[in-house]
Specification:
With 269 residues, the chain is α+β, with helices and mostly antiparallel strands. The chain contains four helices and 16 strands. It has helices spanning 8-43, 49-80, 196-200, 262-268, and strands spanning 3-4, 84-85, 92-95, 112-114, 120-126, 140-142, 157-164, 170-176, 191-193, 206-209, 214-216, 219-225, 231-235, 237-242, 245-250, 257-258.
Length: 269
């Protein structure tokens, strides 16, 4: 049991419904006994057929009334159980955004809990990056701060939702954490690694040393050495960092020379 909402009004309604059922059952008992007496009198020809039909009608009406009130009492009792919030599974309560005396309204968040054994990582991955791994095979998880033995984890399950974001053109991927992972809570940062074949999407990838990148305000560039040996600053678009190197998406072509020391290249000019 997590929360209990004030259910005094609902309890009184349930008690009133139960009392109405008992009253109807008493009326049914009287109508049943009267109907039996009327049948015996009719067999002896002391009463008419209409009198017997009237007694049978009263008995059936009383029985129907009992059935209706029993159904109403069951519905009232079911509604009274809605005032107790129980956990659907064994877990950990992470937030209780309500206090004693607050008004509980439909749609209001009362408590947040999670199952430590059923956590997952959710990532938005570009659809082009998943072209080489449509079934999610080869994806790996990394939890910063985890032991070295857990640097690259194989997910327990992979689910790719069958819908893309129209604005970002990404697909939501859900990767279940293995049961061996401990001390993880919702909201922590995680990194998803893609297979090299899936990330490259069939194109050649260019890398330069991360120390060669020049960042000036909103401009990111590299010093490219021309045929005369002059180092000229050129704006580029960079990709993800991979250790001590970084991917170049555009601005530099294969075979061009890049100055590894941008400060020395700037002084030479």
């Amino acid at each position: 049991e997590l929360l209990r909402i004030d259910a005094r009004a609902a309890g009184e309604l349930a008690a009133a419904s139960a009392a109405q059922v008992r009253a109807a059952q008493a009326s049914l008992s009287v109508a049943s006994a009267d109907y039996e007496r009327q049948k015996q009198l009719f067999q002896r020809q002391y009463i008419s057929q209409s009198a017997l039909d009237r007694a049978r009608g009263q008995f059936e009406a009383a029985r129907a009334q009992v059935w209706a009130l029993q159904a109403q009492a069951g519905a009232t009792h079911a509604q009274s159980s809605f005032f107790v919030v129980t956990a659907p599974y064994a877990g950990v309560v992470s937030a209780v955004p309500v206090s004693l005396g607050d008004m509980a309204t439909p749609g209001r968040l009362l408590v947040t809990l999670y199952d430590p054994s059923a956590l997952r990582v959710t990532a938005a991955i570009p659809q082009s990056a998943l072209a080489g791994a449509p079934d999610g095979k080869g994806l790996r998880l990394q939890l910063p701060g985890a032991p070295a033995s857990q640097s690259r984890l194989e997910p327990a399950s992979v689910q790719i939702l069958p819908a893309a974001d129209a604005a970002t053109h990404t697909l939501q991927v859900r990767l279940g954490l293995p049961a061996s992972v401990k001390d993880v809570v919702p909201g922590m940062f995680a990194r998803v690694w893609l297979p090299a074949t899936a990330a490259s999407s069939g194109r050649a990838r260019l890398y330069v040393p991360a120390s060669a990148v020049v960042r000036r305000a909103e401009m990111t560039g590299l010093y490219v050495v021309d045929a005369q040996g002059r180092a000229l600053l050129r704006q580029v678009r960079l990709g993800p960092l991979d250790g001590d190197r970084i991917e170049v998406l555009s601005g530099v072509g294969k075979g061009e020379r890049v100055a590894a020391d941008p400060q020395a290249a700037a002084r030479a000019n």
